[in-house]
Amino acid sequence: MKSFHTEAFLFVFSEKQPRSPSSCHIIAILVLVRNAALIFLFACLGLQNAWSQSGFHFVENRGQWPEHVRYQVTAQNMRIFLESEGLRYHAYDLTGMSSVHAGESLAEGIKMKGHVYDVQFAGCNERSSFIPSGIFASRFNYYLGNNPDNWASSCRSYQSVTYQELYDDIDLHFYQGESFLKYDFIVKPGGNPELIQCRYDHVNNISVEHGKLVIKHSVGEVWEQRPFAYQVIDGTKVPVKCQYLLSDKTVSFEVGQYDERYALYIDPELIFSTYSGSYSDNFGYTATYDSEGYLYSGSSAFGNEYPVTPGAYQTSWAGGDGQGSLPGIDMAITKYDVSGTDLIYSTYLGGSHDELPHSLICDENNTLYVYGTTSSPDFPVTNGAFDNTWNGGSIFAPSGVGADYVNGSDIVVAHFSADGSDLLASTFLGGSGNDGVNTASTLKFNYADEFRGEIDIDPAGNVIIATSTYSSDFPMTGALQPTAQGGQEACLIKLTASLDDIIWSTYVGGALDDSGNSVAFDSQNNIYFCGGTKSTDFPVGTGGIQTTHAGGITDGWVLLIAADGSEIMHGTYYGSNQYDQIYFVETDDDDMVHVYGQTMADDDFFVLNAGYSDPNSGMLVSKFDPALENTIWSTVFGTGEGEPNLSPTAFLVDVCGKIYMSGWGGSTNTNSNPNTDNLIGMEATPGAYQTSTNGSDFYFLVLEADASELVYASFF
What we know:
The chain has about 725 residues and is mostly beta strands. It contains two helices and 46 strands. Strand 39 (about 580-585) and strand 40 form a beta hairpin. The longest helix is centred in the N-terminal third of the chain and has 7 residues, at about 95-100. The two termini are about 25 Å apart. Mean pLDDT is about 85; it is low at about 1-5, about 10-55 and about 100-105.
């Protein structure tokens, strides 16, 4: 492998919010590839603390409000009035309402607190035109008090409202984003962005912190995200430098050089985009988030120049073997703040040989668990952990990632404190063969597929590991399949939160090679487990969607395993007479099962009950019933050239059922596997962050819950 300097790269779309039962949003999408650790984190809203309910309705004023109010939009704890020359915000503290819903009485003194503040568009054109669009079928009626002059009925509502010519050649567009409220300033050719002046009145404090605008009031605070400015030139979104300027309590925008022949959009959507800052080569593998919106990346660090923080657990690079001219590898684990401008902590994790992180997850206490593999007998493990002893394996050097596992591989699981200063627990897992790596020739389909597998935490706080192993003596406890059947086996392990014991573990496989890739939980804590297999005797049982191997190179599979590990409750193959593999599984609130993977099946083989599809494409997504007996819908997407375009990297189903997928493709993957294709010809939706590609890019898409349409798709 040629040595060259690279950095991990991290970016986030809009601010993450804690999960809310009434919100329909993505929490995090993780995109992980060679040379880059990349997080897609999509918004709940453009204005923090203003939550979507069933959609934002801009309701017209037909006399129910004062004359200068033109429209009003309501979120969970915020009402925003669009007035002739400004905005009025009514913010509410919902803790009182929560107490009422919890059974307390208003008679006991509970009051709803609120705060009103204004944004005045200083110097704007008086009486600018208001243009609504996207009318809703619903109507609103207002009977306020006993004065009929304050009553209004059949008030229309809209999806968006534009202040047209708010300033000369400048519009302000408010609209419903993907489950969040958004606005754009649109500076048309000839317009001057310096005219935009937003004066905040009746706020406790206003400041610019790490590039974002923070407005504090008596019942909370609102964040106006770091402004992202761009132009669309020849179909490509071209970024323009932009930042807030704050003078007293008036906010304006400082905009860099741009082409005045094209419209300029000032859109506070992109929170941050940053490199890791490593002067040593640094390849990204995994990322996650916690309940407070902090972001974590796991990568490989080839040397002692990865940025670590004082007081972190391991501030020195421990060395390794590496391939060719590359030095050895340690894991690099970094926690970023929500704005991407600070490192909360950053640490190495490793021994004197090579190791790589595969998957990260945070628990309810916002402490981080790391699942990976190591070739270091002196990898840092803790007293009292399940296994303090290196178990061995056979030498292997995966192509292209720079690692050389000269001692073979063991699985490692590590648990960090919230501040990254302490390794709370760390253990080896494995037998005498190679563990934790997917090196079976037909199942290692994409570049870096060796390092699949997933760590998750069940609702009881136990640690679940989905992985693969070549060890016939892997530690089995309470196993439903205690004996390896041959070749590479899928393996599922449930550990205590303290990593001091295996609750149960089991092989899952047949006589040929099998891979274990991902897990998800149903409402009873049972575990869905998925992967790929060459085995015609894989234990899928009877009654599933597909009870026999379809005869291709490999098939995908999904099993439902009881929470106590005692039985396979349901199972199915999922494949064609070509190559197929399932990389991710997720469940929704109704225990419906969703999978994301790859296929080389012809034409519309996997297209069923789906309004959106690209037949003869290689990216597969399907929805099953909880018993894996029926396919609710299934579709494929891509360029229609009969090959996968993406290496799948992340998958999520939100609380409204929308499907989020990401991946990467292009020359790196094509060079590794000629049965993959580049991204040229994949669809990007109008208004996407980046609508064109050179063929080697990241890709993110959102499908409607019933696969009826493509909601959003973008290159990056």
